[in-house]
Amino acid sequence: MATKKKAASKKTASKKTASKKTASKKTASKKPVKAKVKRKPNAAFMKPMTPSASLAAVIGAGPMPRTEVTKKIWAYIKKNKLQDDQNRRMINADEKLKDVFKGQKQVSMFEMTKLVSKHLK
Fold first, then answer.
1. Which of 2, 5, 38, 89 sits in a 20 to 30 Å window from 75, CA-based?
2. 0.85 cut: is pTM over it?
């Protein structure tokens, strides 16, 4: 009979500690929420730059920010289906893009941004 009482008291003790743990989790999760700050675009990326003649043949001759240059190049690549079928990171150059890519037939998308930046002034 004494063993039944001990077992019952152990069960109630474990329930008490479990309820304390859940109560501490509830209070710990109520941290003050900071207001989200909207990111400001970097002024260097937004500065209009003039493309070289070979790059202007692809995207247009007017001065535009780097972000817009990248968007227009990707639009040209997708329009002419120049992305490699097996490895989508690689871009196959057509005649206009070969001038921009220093005569290379294929470049990676990461290398592309490096090569394009040399054509902006």
1. 38
2. no
